[in-house]
User: Which sequence fits this backbone?
């Protein structure tokens, strides 16, 4: 069923209800990007694959016990990018990157989103300072290239398993072990209809796995969670379940990595963060973490002490057994058996849907370039509606191509996400408050 696009129920600073000044900033950001995508950059070829390196044992506030330290070398991440792209200051690194690579990763970042909405996240995060928003955006693009975020999405968990085992035997097995451990799962919704990432800290011990596998799990889940985000609720909820937490579960490196991702590379994505059942020992940890947080992120954090407080934010049907303690009431994720999803491919199959999407990308860019060069008028509702309709055309083409651009996840296998042969995208959390919904036309 096709939804009617309106300008109602849209938050300030979001697509459809921009002020004259905000629209002008959006146009300027588009024009700057189109210029960037023209640059030549420098050619670069990857070096031979890294060999596994043994690390000496270490102690201390990681916060782990004395164990042989895991290998902190990255074998997949960064393997296809010039190290200078991340090592050099932004103004020196960006000119080295070919514009077509920046353009490709930009559109992979946009994915099924309204492209205007993708840019607006950066403008809002930098309080409409155009230069700061542009720098934040291109910093994200170089990071996505270096971290191979597009490859992670294309391969999926099964494809990553195979590719990681290829670059380092056993690494893929360790990745899948983390994915199936219950440390982090997706579900929801919260009471504002956000998708939720549940992180069960009691199941994590820092030295039990390579740090690369933890980073890969985090990136994979963040990109998967984006499928659940979109108008009218374009943010997500993160739950840190600290029941049975001890200092042996603390991983400051991961906390820093996650904070950096949320603040620098996924701006305006976190809507709510719940820290549940934090024990007294967590106060020591919190005194270290709190200064690392941006005030905006810190303002979205709430502490809950028990299930009654927790369910003020999350409907009870969305609460996993590890938090509720009730094995008779499982979430859709917990209650649905599933086989492993099929592996995706680094080389995208050239299907009619993919070719149509590539053509639509070009047409969208042409139309947006022309639009960005027009005079901005005050309260131009016709223009706002036209941009939303243009975004929907793009979104429909991208959704049609999702089957070759995004590998299926375990959440597709369980029916939380469904992409039909007709190109309709459904989300189903399996709760009374959020029945199965067709989100295809939401821009």
Assistant:
């Amino acid at each position: 069923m096709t939804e009617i696009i309106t300008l109602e129920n849209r938050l300030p600073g979001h697509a459809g209800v921009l002020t004259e000044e905000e629209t002008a900033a959006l146009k300027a950001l588009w024009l700057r990007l189109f210029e960037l995508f023209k640059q030549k950059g420098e050619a670069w070829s990857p070096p031979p694959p890294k060999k596994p390196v043994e690390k000496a044992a270490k102690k201390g506030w990681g916060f782990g016990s004395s164990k042989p330290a895991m290998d902190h070398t990255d074998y997949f991440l960064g393997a296809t990018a010039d190290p200078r792209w991340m090592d050099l200051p932004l103004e020196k690194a960006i000119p080295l990157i070919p514009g077509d690579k920046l353009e490709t990763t930009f559109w992979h970042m946009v994915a099924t989103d309204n492209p205007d909405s993708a840019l607006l996240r950066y403008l809002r995060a930098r309080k409409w300072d155009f230069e700061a928003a542009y720098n934040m955006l291109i910093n994200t693009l170089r990071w996505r290239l270096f971290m191979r975020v597009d490859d992670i999405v294309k391969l999926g968990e099964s494809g990553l398993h195979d590719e990681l085992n290829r670059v380092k035997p056993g690494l893929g097995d360790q990745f899948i072990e983390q994915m199936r451990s219950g440390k982090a799962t997706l579900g929801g919704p919260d009471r504002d209809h956000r998708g939720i990432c549940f992180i069960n800290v009691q199941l994590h011990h820092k030295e039990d796995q390579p740090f690369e596998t933890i980073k890969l799990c985090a990136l994979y889940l963040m990109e998967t969670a984006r499928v659940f985000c979109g108008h009218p609720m374009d943010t997500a909820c993160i739950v840190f379940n600290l029941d049975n937490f001890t200092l042996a579960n603390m991983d400051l490196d991961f906390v820093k990595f996650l904070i950096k991702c949320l603040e620098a590379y996924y701006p305006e994505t976190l809507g709510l963060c719940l820290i549940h059942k934090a024990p007294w020992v967590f106060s020591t940890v919190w005194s270290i973490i709190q200064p690392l947080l941006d005030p905006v992120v810190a303002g979205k954090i709430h502490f809950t002490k028990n299930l009654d407080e927790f369910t003020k934010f999350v409907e009870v049907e969305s609460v996993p057994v590890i938090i509720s303690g009730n094995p008779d009431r499982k979430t859709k994720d917990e209650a649905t058996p599933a086989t492993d999803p099929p592996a995706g491919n680094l080389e995208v199959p050239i299907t009619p849907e993919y070719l149509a999407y590539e053509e639509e990308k070009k047409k969208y860019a042409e139309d947006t370039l022309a639009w960005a060069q027009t005079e901005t008028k005050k309260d131009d509702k016709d223009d706002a509606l036209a941009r939303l309709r243009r975004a929907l055309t793009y979104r429909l083409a991208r959704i049609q191509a999702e089957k070759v651009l995004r590998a299926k996840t375990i959440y597709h296998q369980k029916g939380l996400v469904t992409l039909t042969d007709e190109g309709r995208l459904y989300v189903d959390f399996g709760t009374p408050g959020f029945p199965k919904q067709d989100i295809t036309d939401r821009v």
